[in-house]
TrEMBL record:
<protein>
    <recommendedName>
        <fullName>carnitine O-palmitoyltransferase</fullName>
        <ecNumber>2.3.1.21</ecNumber>
    </recommendedName>
</protein>
<keyword id="KW-0472">Membrane</keyword>
<keyword id="KW-0496">Mitochondrion</keyword>
<comment type="similarity">
    <text>Belongs to the carnitine/choline acetyltransferase family.</text>
</comment>
<keyword id="KW-0813">Transport</keyword>
<dbReference type="GO" id="GO:0015909">
    <property type="term" value="P:long-chain fatty acid transport"/>
</dbReference>
<keyword id="KW-0012">Acyltransferase</keyword>
<keyword id="KW-1133">Transmembrane helix</keyword>
<feature type="domain" description="Carnitine O-palmitoyltransferase N-terminal">
    <location>
        <begin position="1"/>
        <end position="47"/>
    </location>
</feature>
<keyword id="KW-0443">Lipid metabolism</keyword>
<feature type="transmembrane region" description="Helical">
    <location>
        <begin position="61"/>
        <end position="83"/>
    </location>
</feature>
<dbReference type="InterPro" id="IPR042231">
    <property type="entry name" value="Cho/carn_acyl_trans_2"/>
</dbReference>
<feature type="active site" description="Proton acceptor">
    <location>
        <position position="474"/>
    </location>
</feature>
<dbReference type="InterPro" id="IPR039551">
    <property type="entry name" value="Cho/carn_acyl_trans"/>
</dbReference>
<dbReference type="Pfam" id="PF16484">
    <property type="entry name" value="CPT_N"/>
</dbReference>
<dbReference type="GO" id="GO:0006635">
    <property type="term" value="P:fatty acid beta-oxidation"/>
</dbReference>
<dbReference type="InterPro" id="IPR023213">
    <property type="entry name" value="CAT-like_dom_sf"/>
</dbReference>
Length: 769
């Protein structure tokens, strides 16, 4: 009712003396402020688009160019090489400018043309430089070709990510190239050699030959190349649509992932203060993103990466549909949605024309924690709708949330900047009891099935003892984007001693004005609606009870020791995973997925590195045989590591296997063409699905002075019913975190056992050197 009262801007009464108007000045003032803020955002957006369009030039440089051209002409130096005189008659005839002003206008037009030409030439040159990836294959001590040397000099002269805006290089980034079909098929067949029997390999080769010889591959490739010329990226839209949005399975565990606190430090134990400080830091980061003040990520501070995925980081929600979900993104929001003790609240962070301070947010969050009112019937389990079957949620949303209080309250959640969950339980890390960290991670991955809003881009979770983490929806972007947000707002800001908290653990500062009260969201959930919520909760409960999640904090050695072995840390870990799986499975290899990024290209997302190779299998067999000499083992492990690094570089530069096969398969379905080769190639199980969480993306981590300020990374649920999901983060010089998931219902897997095998394999690899 309070919101409804405030919404009445004016009222009028008809009396015998005429019509009397009564204005609510505060409401009118808020309307005015909202309009001004909206126009400011539009102006800022226009200014950013202009800046990105003319980068690296500045608007003032156009005026300078015009003045130089005009002054030079006035003093008898025609810098236009005679084009001013040729243009004067045109200016007089069509613009009606009389001499001598026609000369000035001609100079200005020619200067403008030269200025735009220089910008276009720069962008074309940058595009050509960024399309060259030979440097990736010549790094790390190998001989450098003259092409790469020239490229390096030009890039350092022309590309400066330090003064660029977030999207300054978007237009110059190359399109993801479509690989040659023959090359993709060859790479695919080679990747399957260590996994298939001779008869199975012969069958796959025959299917591949038929796919090529019957003209199917050529036809599908033609349409794919056609799309690559038209679309910014020939993979990303189909990947988002068919891999994520068309899936009807629950997204909890199956798709969503989580991130965990910096477990070696604890800035405060006050729940409301931690929630306020982290929320405020995240919102300030969103403010910088909106203004494009965040610098684009780059490789070696030189080669920029695509920034497209940042656009939907905040104020974005996945909306369920009967056959396909959709992503709703808003350009602006003034509130966050807060969940606590089974109730939902709307909390404003922008009020009365200003952004609230952390201490003011803490005041609001504390009032929610102090509120002991009971949840409405069905409210406590409401988020189970987002955890269960997508079709059921879509029908429930349409039947029970399309009008009235339910619609208003659901809008408040879906249109929030993000969701904050203030948990009643505590979570922590105890080196003497690793089960506590396992429970910590499980709470972030799925909670109790109804205390995380799984449709939101991310739910920030703050536990009763001040520990934090997040649960993130996967369709809108990949984990490195959330990882960067986490690093910007938590690792390099929130946990820094003396920055955000007083000695008593509360946020620094004092309120600067009126702080609005949290608004309790109202629900009218019928018995039929509550039945649907209960059924979805049962689905979610069965799913989360089947998750076996274990975290390994490996502190025996880390990146520093791996580098002394003259091996890529990622290749080192991947080979350890192959050795560990071979031991865990009783002498078997499996199809292994490692996620790689393709953000060197416009709107790039991920590609697959098939980490189980002939070389890695040869090394593992030799290692387990006990007959190979140390020299032979070192030779084999280096060959396997080199092969892995080459495949990783191939994946990053658009020469991967799986995204190309996936898009060929999509085209075949549109063309109604049956391809036995594509059907078989795309329906193999990834029994070992792995991903490395990036660390130190922002360049702001100071591990020398604050070695404990490292992120523990995050993880995801098992991809295969009888396999493992392994996420790892190589944090600092001496620590690696592994997040290992599997199914409780599978007798063949055990996450803790596999974690022990990983630690053993890491030590065995290190002992080789």
């Amino acid at each position: 009712m309070a919101e409804a009262h405030q919404a009445v801007v004016f009222a009028f009464n008809i009396t015998d003396q005429g019509i009397q108007f009564e204005f609510d000045k505060d409401a009118l003032h808020q309307v005015w402020r909202s309009g001004v803020r909206a126009y400011k955002k539009r102006y800022a957006g226009f200014k950013n688009r202009l800046r990105n369009g003319i980068y690296p030039a500045k608007p003032g440089s156009l005026l300078t160019t015009m003045l130089v051209m005009i002054l030079a002409t006035m003093f008898g130096n025609d810098l236009s090489l005679g084009y001013v005189k040729l243009l004067n008659p045109v200016v007089v005839k069509y613009l009606g400018v009389v001499p001598p002003h026609d000369t000035y206008v001609s100079c200005a037009l020619i200067a403008c043309g030269l200025w735009l030409s220089a910008i276009l030439l720069y962008k074309q040159l940058i595009g050509c430089l960024l399309a060259y990836h030979g440097w990736m294959y010549e790094a790390h001590g190998r001989s450098i070709s003259w092409r790469t040397k020239v490229w390096s000099v030009l890039v350092k002269l022309l590309v400066s990510c330090k003064r660029a805006g977030l999207y300054s290089f978007q237009g110059a980034l190359p399109r993801l190239p479509v690989p040659n079909v023959d090359d993709t098929i060859r790479r695919y067949l080679v990747s399957m050699e260590p996994l298939l029997s001779d008869d199975q390999m012969a069958e796959m080769r025959q299917l591949a030959d038929e796919f090529k010889s019957k003209g199917t591959a050529k036809k599908l490739q033609f349409y794919l190349r056609l799309k690559s010329w038209w679309a910014p990226n020939y993979v990303s839209d189909w990947w988002e649509e068919f891999v994520y949005l068309y899936s009807r399975d629950p997204i909890m565990v199956n798709s969503n992932y989580y991130g965990i606190d910096a477990i070696f430090v604890r800035p405060t134990r006050v729940q409301a203060a931690r929630a306020a400080n982290v929320s405020w830091s995240m919102l300030q980061y969103w403010r910088k993103l909106s203004r494009e003040e965040v610098k684009p990520l780059s490789i070696n501070d030189t080669v920029p990466l695509c920034s497209w995925q940042y656009e939907r980081l905040f104020a974005t929600t996945r909306i369920p549909g009967d056959e396909r979900d959709r992503i709703m993104h808003l350009n602006d929001a003034k509130h966050i949605a807060v969940y606590h003790a089974g109730r939902y609240f709307k909390v404003y962070f922008y009020y009365a024309g200003r952004w609230l301070e952390p201490c003011e947010l803490e005041q609001q969050f504390q009032s929610i924690l102090n509120d002991k009112s009971a949840p409405a019937a069905g409210e406590a389990d409401l988020a189970a709708l987002t955890a269960g079957e997508r079709r059921v949620w879509a029908r429930a949303r349409r039947d029970f949330f399309s009008r009235g209080a339910n619609r208003t309250s659901l809008d408040a959640i879906e249109r929030a900047a993000f969701v904050l969950a203030l948990d009643e339980e505590s979570a922590d890390y105890d080196p003497e009891d690793d089960s506590q960290l396992d429970r910590f991670a499980k709470s972030l991955l799925h909670g109790n099935g109804c205390n995380r809003w799984f449709d939101k881009t991310f739910t920030l979770v703050v536990f009763a003892n001040g520990r934090i983490g997040f649960n993130a929806e996967h369709s809108w972007a990949d984990a490195p984007v959330l990882s960067q947000l986490w690093e910007e707002t938590v690792i390099t800001s929130d946990i820094v001693p003396g920055v955000g908290y007083n000695s008593d653990g509360h946020c620094k500062g004092s309120p600067k004005g009126t702080v609005p009260n949290p608004i309790r969201l109202q629900w009218d959930l019928s018995a039929s609606c509550r039945d649907v919520i209960s059924s979805q909760l049962r689905v979610a409960t069965n799913l989360l009870n089947d998750v076996d999640l274990h975290l390994v904090v490996h502190t025996q050695f880390g990146k520093g020791a791996m580098k002394t072995c003259r091996m890529s840390p990622d290749a080192f870990v991947q080979l350890a995973l192959q050795l560990a799986y071979f031991r865990d499975s009783g002498g078997q290899f499996c199809l292994t997925y490692e996620a790689s990024m393709t953000r060197l290209f416009r709107e790039g997302r991920t590609e697959t590195v098939r980490s189980c190779t002939n070389q890695s299998c040869e090394f593992v067999r030799a290692m387990e045989s006990g007959n190979a000499s140390k020299a032979d083992l070192i030779r084999l492990v280096r060959a396997a590591a080199d092969k892995h690094q080459t495949m990783y570089r191939d994946a990053m530069t658009g020469k991967g296997v799986d995204r190309h096969l996936f898009t060929l398969y999509v085209v075949s379905k549109y063309c109604k063409i049956q391809s036995p080769f594509l059907e078989k190639a795309l329906h193999c199980q990834w029994k070992l699905s792995t991903s490395q969480t990036p660390h130190g993306q922002t360049g702001k981590l100071d591990l020398r002075n604050s070695p404990d300020s490292i992120s523990a990374g995050g993880g995801f649920g098992p991809v295969s019913e009888d396999g493992y999901g392994v996420s790892y983060i190589i944090a600092g010089e001496d620590t690696i975190f592994f997040h290992i998931s599997s199914r409780v219902s599978c007798d063949l897997t055990n996450s803790r056992r596999f974690g022990d095998q990983i630690c053993r394999a890491l030590q065995d690899l290190k002992n080789l050197f």
